[in-house]
Each structure stands twice: as C-alpha cells, then as structure tokens.
Amino acid sequence: MDETWWSRLAQPSLHAWGEEKKPLKLHGKAVAKDDPDPKALSCYGVWFPHEERMLLRFVNGRPVSSVTTEFLSWVCERLKEYGKTAWLLPWDNASWHISQHVKGWIKNHNRRVKAQGGVRIVVCSLPTKSPWLNPIEPKWLHGKRAILEPDRVLSAREVKERVCDHYGCDSLEPLSQYVS
User: 20 to 30 Å CA-CA from 85: which of 21, 36, 92, 111?
Assistant: First the structure.
C-alpha cells in the first residue's frame, strides 16, 4: 500500500532521442486562474502482485491519518470479501503511517479482528529512504507514464478516469479529509 500524487502539470521522467546538437526542450504547463480543479490529486492504492490487481481510492485533500485509517478499513472489508484473514502491509515512514492515530487504530482493529473475525493487519516497516522495496512504486511510475498527455492539461475528472482505466479499477467516491 502507498499513496501517490497524480499531477495535472508535471511530466514523469521519460527518455527520448533527439537530433544531434538540437536538444529536446520541455515546455512547462500552467492552469488558468479560474480552473477549479486542484493541480494534483492524491490517491491511495494497494497492489496485489499475485493477482495483478490494484485497489484505488482518490482523496479530497491530502493523505492524513484519518484518511489513512478510513482507507485501511475499506481495504480490510474488500479483503474479507475475497476470503483473506491477514494483510501483510509493507509500509514506508510517511508521517501519516507512523502517527499515533494510525498505530492506535491498527492495534484496536487487530483486537476487534481477534475477537470478532475479519482481516488482521501486519505492518512491515520499510527502511528509511528505500521506496524501491515497496512493490507498488513501479506500478505508480508506469501508471503516470501511461496517462501522460503532453499537449494539454487534463481535468481532474480525466486524470481519475485514465488512472482507473489503466489499473482496471472502479471509479469510487473519493475519501474525504475531515477536520476535527
């Protein structure tokens, strides 16, 4: 599991060949001042390598602890539907992963699962600054290259549609950031 940002403006790293002594130039993109869409969209995802399947949820706002626990709960419900009893979760040290709120939620969730049944979460913390150890990272990069639109700025709706189409996921209601 991991989060990523889908930029409407930035281009992912690409390699290209050009004519000798005529370097390729990247042209920056900009949005109109009256454009209501955000410049980037946050998205949570879980990659299941054995099944070649991705579960995705976009976020209204940014990834914070309360949204993370809502996503974890949603994934556990999906995994329960698939007949799973445990989820081995490789995780980096993002602040919303290691927060007391998320750690406490996982602890309470696992207690409930032990008493009532469900999907237990086993967190496997990745070493600091080692994103290549998370199997979802290459999937994000390939997805960003696949939805690329070099000639124009995509709308937020188009970005969501292209991402969901690329990964073969349903376009679901985004998770919302709640302020207490």
Answer: 92
pLDDT averaged over the chain? 86
CA angle 161/45/85 to nearest 5° reads 130
Instruction: Give this prediction's pTM.
Output: 0.83
Question: To 10 degrees, the CA torsion angle through 86, 91, 97, 99?
Answer: 90
Confidence category of residue 74, pLDDT binned at 50, 70, 90: very high
pLDDT > 70 fraction of the chain, expressed in percent and rounded: 89
- Torsion angle (degrees, nearest 10) of CA 101, 110, 5, 160: -120
Asked if 105 and 113 touch (Cβ cutoff 8 Å), the reply is: no
**Which residues lie across from 111 on neighbouring strands?**
none
Question: Residue 72 carries which DSSP code?
Answer: H
CB atoms within 10 A of CB 78: 12
